[in-house]
Amino acid sequence: MLFNSVEYFLFLPLALSVHLALPRRFQWIWLLCISYYFYASWSVRHVLLMVGNTLVAYAAGLLLERYTAPRLRKRIVAVSATLLLGTLFAFKYFGFARDSLTALFHFLGVDASLPVLEVVLGVCLVVGVLTRGAGLVSALLNLAFIVAITSVWARGIEIECGCFGGGGAKEGASSAYPWEIARDAGLFLLSVYLVWSPRTRLALDNLIFRRHEGLDDVEEERTAVQG
User: Fold this and answer.
1) pLDDT digits (tens, 9 = 90+) for 28-42
2) For residue 105, is it left (φ>0), alpha (ψ between -120 and 50) or beta?
3) pLDDT one-digit tens code per residue, 113-162
4) Which of 109, 157, 190, 223 stands the most exposed, by the fewest C-beta atoms within 10 Å?
5) C-alpha angle 222/209/201, rounded to 5°?
């Protein structure tokens, strides 16, 4: 269903009419259902992205209701916003941003490719340099990989991943897509954890940046409750 199609021309007024006719407490359920239907009309498999975003937003809301410590609430909002906006970026704008950056690097005479970026990120994560930023970029990259694999799977395209394979078209490659999505999802979660808690005792960030002393999240929560 495209925005300029007859189906959408009929779908939009019907969706709005039912939404306005429903009691307020049921309107969110209707909006959720028609949103899923809209994306499912394009590809049923893309509903998985909507389900994931829904769970992230819902979990963030529950955590914000439970915790009152300001620093912890800021982290919850930051992580959830990163996941939701990262999905949007990876799904809609990653290709455009990649092509634009590649053209810029070529214009500057720099041969920058994705494997080089991955190696740099890996080194940063191993030695603990700019860990939070590297973790964020790593999370966005793995999210982009998940979206890309899901997209080619939904369109019936069979290609071999260039990271752990030779790349290019390969018959029967779709049988490995579930494993590749699960692998990238695991790497994505690990990257998000590094954004949440970027430093250890051995991280070089401890030598580069001065650590600020303050109450930890548990103490902030206890103070907020007592106050």
Assistant:
1) 899 988 888 887 887
2) alpha
3) 556 666 677 777 777 777 888 888 888 888 878 887 887 777 777 776 65
4) 109
5) 65
CA distance 33 to 17: 14
Q: Distance (Å, rounded) from C-alpha 128 to C-alpha 37?
A: 44
Contact in structure between 21 and 14 (CB atoms under 8 Å): no
Q: What pTM, to 2 d.p., does this model score?
A: 0.46
Indicate the domain borders of the chain. 71-226
DSSP code per residue over the chain: --TTSHHHHHHHHHHHHHHHHS-HHHHHHHHHHHHHHHHHHH-GGGHHHHHHHHHHHHHHHHHHHH---HHHHHHHHHHHHHHHHHHHIIIIIHHHHHHHHHHHHHHTT----HHHHHHHHHHHHHHTSSHHHHHHHHHHHHHHHHHHHHHHHHTT--B--TTTS--SB-TTGGGGHHHHHHHHHHHHHHHHHHHHS---TT-THHHHSPPPP---HHHHHHHHHH-
Q: How far apart are CA 83 and CA 106, in angstroms?
A: 30
Phi and psi at residue 159, in whole multiples of 5°?
Answer: -135, 155
